[in-house]
Amino acid sequence: MRSIRHRLVGVVAVVGAFVASTGAADPRVHVVRHVRVAPAASSTSVMSTNVSSAGDVNGDGRNDLLAFNPATDEVRLYRGTGAATFGYGRLATLITSDPEARIFPGGTYYSRPGFLAVVNSDSWLYGYGLDRAGDESCCGPVAPGWGLRFLDGHADFTGDGIADAVGVTSSGYGYLYRGRGDANASFTHGTRIASGWATMRVVFAATDVTGDRRADLLGVDSAGVLWIFPGTGKGTFTPKRKVGSGWGGLGALFSARDVTGDGRVDLGAITSTGTLRIYKGRGDGTFSSAVAVSSGWAPYL
Ligand SMILES: [Ca+2]
Ligand SMILES: [Ca+2]
Ligand SMILES: [Ca+2]
Hints:
Keywords: Signal. InterPro entries: FG-GAP (IPR013517), Integrin_alpha_N (IPR028994). It is built from 1 helix and 20 strands. The protein is mostly beta strands. The strands form 5 sheets. A 4-stranded antiparallel beta sheet has the order 1-2-3-4, with no helix packed on it. Strand 10 (about 165-170) and strand 11 (about 175) form a beta hairpin. The relative contact order is 0.14. Residues about 1-45 have low confidence and may be disordered. Bound molecules: calcium ion (CA) (3 copies). One calcium ion (CA) binds near residues 58, 64, 79 and 80.
């Protein structure tokens, strides 16, 4: 049913975008120009983006994790239960798509924390909101043409308090899409922020890992080096800082937001054998040694 709904809504929205393009400009359709790329699953060099933070979905002050299993179409919510501990994976929703859907971190969708998903052959970007119980409360199309290698829409890079999206194309260009602040979480035309990222194994956003309260980007390159691209809070970035080497063997690396309760952003990782790890952020662009949290996360790679 959800697959059918996606397609129906998508058709209506495509028609709307086409009409808009012949008259008054609809800023949401500008991203159509991006070249479509194959899903990440077809590439052996790209880390999984199937696990990410959802923020605090149930309102208990602890950040929760989302995980998408491409084999079953399930998105599961793992509620934070303590300092870097999580409960069982409760089914939040199903996302069916042709080709395979991908999910990415998002801000709020109709005032509810949730996530972004890119679905179907036209790479429609959808927003999902989750209610306090962890069930899908709202879902709808944002715009077509988001066939990006990486996408992260949960952090504010421009200083207006509205979450922006950062995406990386298959040709290695990084783009910043400013959040418009409307209920359905649409974004403006992309501004190029980087090039040469075609070999990055993962790129993701963090609300702040350097301690200046400005959102940062992080990425692991083909040599396994983890870099921070510090944000200025004005939609630009200062020169990258090296965090360290040896991050290339992970199956996934993402911002877990703060899951230890000290207000500093932590990193989450899934090892190649399916262990969830947390690297506690020190708030100065460095991270403590990994703590193994739980096993059984391999289906999300
Ligand atoms: Ca929570
Ligand atoms: Ca913003
Ligand atoms: Ca920062």
